[in-house]
Amino acid sequence: MYKYDHIDQKIVNERVNQYQNQLNRYLNKELSDEEFRPLRLQNGLYIQRHAPMLRVAIPYGLLSSKQLYKLADIADKYDRGYGHFSTRQNIQFNWPKLEDTPNILRELAEVEMHAIQTSGNCIRNITTDQFAGVTDDEIIDPRHIAEIIRQWSTFHPEFALLPRKFKIAITGSSKDRALVQCHDIGLEFFINTNNKMSIKVWVGGGLGRTPIIGSVIKNELEWEHILTYCEAILRVYNLYGRRDNMYKARIKILVKSLGIEAFKKLVEDEWRYIKNGPNTINVEELSRVKKYFSEPDYKKDIKNNLKDHGSNKAFNQWLSRSTKGHKKTGYRAVTFSLKETGCAPGDASSTQMKAVSTLADAYSFGEIRVSHEQNLILADVQEDRLYELWIKAKEYHLVTPNIGLLTDIICCPGGDFCSLANAKSIPIAQSIQDLFDDMDYLHDIGDLNLNISGCMNACGHHHVGHIGILGVDKDGSEWYQVTLGGNQGNFASIGKVIGPSFSAEEMPVIVKKIIEVYLNNRQKEEIFIDCVSRIGLEPFKNYIYKDSEVTK
Amino acid sequence: MTSQLIKGKDIVKDDWVITELAETEQVIRMQAGKVVAFKLSGEDYPASKQVKETIFSDTGKVLLPLKVFMLHQEKLKERLANEEIGIWFSTHEEIHKFTEAIGDLNHFPLIAIHVEKFADGRIFSIGSQLRNKYNFKNELRAFGDVLRDQIFFLKRSGFDSYLIREDRNAKDAIKGLNDFSDPYQGASDILEPVWKRRKR
Predict the structure, then answer these.
(1) CB-based contacts of A165: which residues, under 8 Å, 6+ apart?
(2) Which of A147, A398, A544, B157 could be A393's S-S partner, Cβ–Cβ 3.0 to 4.6 Å?
(3) What is the distance, to the nearest Å, from the Cα of residue B120 to the centroid of all Cα atoms in its chain?
(4) What span, in angstroms and rounded, lies between the C-alpha atoms of A223 and A221?
(5) A162 at the B interface (CB within 8 A)?
(6) Closest CA to A80 of A313, A348, A285
(7) DSSP H helices in chain B
């Protein structure tokens, strides 16, 4: 993975000093609340329900074992012994003290980490495929360009105070796992007809209260121009994006109101005079960064060694759901589920983090990835060591074999923690997990994404969940709206609302009814989302609302 | 009173007089407490009545609102040649609508941009365009809600003078220029990105 040189390290160290100074001025009342707000946000610090929340950046979801161990240490020392992995591959601490935050950042800097631009109206963490570099459907490893964009966007002077936040995602696979069509800018790598690395550029996608699938602004951009092209897009957005109404300030609203053609024209006009300028990437820089992501020292001459363990059904279920094919013969990528029933989705205790760190050293070249589904991944595990790993990880409750299943719920922190939320989300996730705790039944239901957000900011990506649940506030109480048919990946779509919303108590039963309709209608091997696309919403609506004296 | 003006790396006396726009009875539309003035709405801002009623000094170095300059352009030729005329405009105004009529922006010894709120980052892109698209070479100044924590970014976006908000200490603010010593990306002050400037 990428390793800091003295230049990277100095920038992070200088940031800690700058932030310490900003905080001091705030505590000395030299900065007002309003003036300190954008400064602390650009450092991932929110003022939340109980305490400040600090969001730490995990660039494109990649962590070393040493870094994960440090995160666990920080959770113990400054927080309550746990952290929450977010849908943007970052980690959040919910209970730090304001005065401690510079020390936390100082400790993070020791392991080449920071909280730069994890919040605020700026370019956020660059996200990508959690299986980058190991997946067999990969065309280009997206991490090289992700790192180059990370450096370019870090303290970019022109884009420090945008109309609203700005998120970039990159995929290098034929199968998109990075949601590129739902980002402010989405970059899809491919090899063009001249055998050159090129990029299809999407713009103006996003979830939030106005979910929109992005539009293609450029079908084929040669890779060396990616920074100048992003600069042109961002300049147009910075100048023309709305700043009077924060709910209409994202780039998607600008693209939609101008139309993609008019927007593109403005971008091309800006690009014309910076194209081939100093920020054009050269081959030397690409190779410099690329070498950090070279293949680990895979064992040669090992054969496929994937075997189940006789009657050990739990292991076999885990093997089929939680491990994934690898480009190297004899290896698999393992996903540790942070979705055990009874736990808040995405939460990991410091004990779990330390265990994963140690297991990564022993089984996977000391690297860990965080997925946007809020799980942890060891990407390079030898097949003949899977059983051993499973036994050890089981002790730490990391092997629930529900990856990609109904209980692998994507969920935001919700009303329990977040001051933006309209409703709680974690208890809803837990009540659903409680109802569906029979693994055989879950495996029979098969692939299904259930996403929950506690408000329309959509941190839980409810729009693209096959089943989406959105917390809404009506007359001061919490209700839940259900959508069906959302999808992520290459065929991304936004789910449709099925009807009036439900109370928290009703939610598990409603999900159960949805599943019953699916099971009664599915054709052989047909997964949930395909069944919904085929039969439409009506059968679900009819069954769910048939005898309920419709709630609200 | 000490000066609030930082120019380059020093605090200096300001020898320019800013001409404010005439007070107006025009209703300013507010939404959620913020002024609605979009570039996209096509609204005329400032209003032509306001521009006509603006008065400015006949002598000395004056910094005129962009549209006031446009209105009096013909009769200001001599003063312009004497380097007595600068222009200023706000972040929601668009310079590109006037560049053709103005000709070379380098006739102005000073262009100043007014930023009403700290969080309004349009000022950075305006600076960048003035330097790189319109090749403006002379003094570029930020004024309004200008505080310590913006000026590193302002410098990198092509600004070289900063009139710090009156209630803040310019001596403290000037420290902000040194927040970072070796930035990653090429921008208006240091054109090359770090991987072209340094051996990595």
Answers:
(1) A119, A120, A121, A122, A124, A184, A250
(2) A398
(3) 13
(4) 6
(5) yes
(6) A348
(7) 48-53, 66-72, 77-81, 99-102, 122-132, 148-156, 170-173, 194-197
**Spatial separation of the C-alpha atoms in residues A400 and A343, rounded to whole Å:** 12
What is the pLDDT of chain A when averaged over all its residues? 93
Domain of A240, CATH number, reads 3.30.413.10
Instruction: Determine the structural domain holding residue A494 and report its residue range.
Output: 410-545
A229 and A84 within one domain: no
Query: pLDDT digits over B4-30, tens only?
Result: 999 999 999 999 999 999 886 555 555
Contacts of A161 in chain B (CB under 8 A): 118-121, 124, 150, 153
- How do residues B39-79 score in pLDDT, each as one tens digit? 444 556 788 888 999 999 999 999 999 999 999 999 999 99
Q: How far is B189 from chain A (nearest CA, A)?
A: 10
Question: pLDDT at position A418, please?
Answer: 86
Q: Residue B38 pLDDT more than 90?
A: no
- Reported ipTM: the value is 0.93
A33 touches chain B (CB under 8 A): no
To probe the interface with B, which of A33, A224, A244 has the most B CB atoms within 10 Å?
Answer: A244
Interfacial A residues in 87-126 facing B (CB < 8 Å): 121
Please state, rounded to an integer, the average pLDDT across all residues of chain B: 90
Cα-based distances in Å from A96 to A55, A79, A99, A100, B175: 11, 5, 9, 7, 29
Alpha carbon separation from B69 to A330, A476, B45, B73, B89 (Å, rounded): 74, 55, 14, 5, 11
Q: In this structure, what DSSP letter does residue A422 have?
A: S
Q: Of A8, A10, A27, which Cα lies nearest the Cα of A102? A: A27
Same domain, residue pair A387 and A414: no
Q: Is B179 on the interface with A (CB under 8 A)?
A: yes
Written as one letter, the residue type at A232 is A
DSSP symbols for B52-91:
HH----SSS-EEEEHHHHHHHTGGGHHHHHTT-EEEEEET
For residues B93 and B126, the answer to whether their CB atoms sit within 8 Å is no
Q: Is B5-197 a domain of CATH 1.10.1760?
A: no
| Tally of domains within chain A | 4
Find the CB nearest B193 among A15, A240, A279.
Answer: A279
